[in-house]
Design a protein that fits this description.
By secondary structure, this protein is of the alpha/beta class. The chain has a single domain, classed as Spore Coat Polysaccharide Biosynthesis Protein SpsA, Chain A, CATH 3.90.550.10. Helices cover about 45% and strands about 15% of the residues. The chain is built from 9 helices and 7 strands. Strands 3-2-1-4-6-5-7 form a 7-stranded mixed β-sheet, sandwiched between helices. Helix 2 links the parallel strand 2 and strand 3. Helix 1 runs parallel beside helix 2. It is globular, with a radius of gyration of 18 Å. The N terminus and C terminus are likely disordered.
């Protein structure tokens, strides 16, 4: 395992100030074996009248048939992986396609039905006001049927991110976000699968990228479908945080960046306090 980044995260890698008038958002929906909820989520997403990129990450259920039944729609773009590569790879495929299509920002929505696409406009409003910012949705940790291990894992990841880069996040795991595509093309995220969403926050802190957090509602079903593998993915998370902590310790510049990240996160929270989602 490499403990160093293949490319340095330097000040010149910071996301440049963007012209608000060039704000061109889209939706990126990574999906894997969520055929039961996919049709509803995609249709509700298309109702937002934004370019919508759905990435079928090698699904083995009838996801392909569901997506085929939704065509043709001018705003819908379906991309497929021949085999499952993980959530990070699916999102990156969507981000590259979105950037090639001229989009500047991508709102991500999971397709398991826990998060409502109708909440995206609020996040896009925040992103439009702060074009260089990474906008994170924040779920209430006291949601009915929310697994205890998810709450514990989220809190631990939040604490480690603060140590790594100084950014105080409340929910480092929520799949409802808005990414400035300029950030994704400029920071060398190494983590795959679920680790991408955690690592990108740390890299945002190291590069002085503002982090804006907004409350979102979420639900858990009695038959919760999760592709998170407790042992394997927890081991990956441990390796990820160890790598980030060592990288920060070896780079004095990152310690400086972390202080700036802390100030930006604090101001964001004061400007838009996060309340418990209803």
């Amino acid at each position: 395992m490499s403990w160093r980044y293949p490319l340095p995260v330097k000040p010149e890698c910071r996301v440049p100030q963007m012209d608000p008038h060039s704000f061109r958002p889209c939706l990126v929906l990574p999906t894997y074996n969520n055929a039961g909820t996919l049709d509803d989520i995609v249709r509700r997403s298309l109702a937002l009248s934004l370019p919508t990129f759905v990435i079928d990450d090698g699904s083995t259920d009838h996801t392909a048939q569901v997506l085929e039944s939704l065509k043709p729609q001018p705003l819908l773009h379906v991309l497929r992986h021949a085999e499952n590569k993980g959530k990070a790879a699916a999102m990156l495929t969507g981000f590259r396609a979105a950037e090639a299509a001229g989009c500047t920002h991508a709102a991500t929505v999971d397709t398991d039905g826990q998060l409502d696409p109708e909440q995206v406009p609020a996040l896009l409003t925040a992103a439009s006001a702060n074009p260089a910012a990474l906008v994170l949705g924040v779920r209430n940790s006291k949601i009915a049927r929310c697994p205890a291990r998810s709450v514990i894992g989220r809190r631990l990841a939040n604490a480690l991110i603060r140590i790594q880069c100084g950014v105080r996040v409340i929910d480092s795991q929520c799949g409802l976000r808005v990414y400035p595509l300029a950030l994704i093309t400029r920071v060398p995220v190494q983590a795959d699968r679920f680790g991408f969403e955690t690592e990108v926050i740390t890299l945002a802190g190291w590069t002085g990228t503002p982090v804006v957090q907004l409350p979102v509602s979420c639900r858990y079903f009695e038959k919760h479908v999760s592709h998170f593998r407790p042992w394997v993915d927890t081991c990956r998370a441990v390796r990820l945080h160890a790598r980030l902590l060592v990288t920060r310790a070896r780079n004095p510049a990152f310690r400086t960046q972390a202080s700036a990240g802390r100030e930006m996160s604090t101001s964001s929270l004061e400007a838009a306090p996060v309340r418990a989602a209803k």
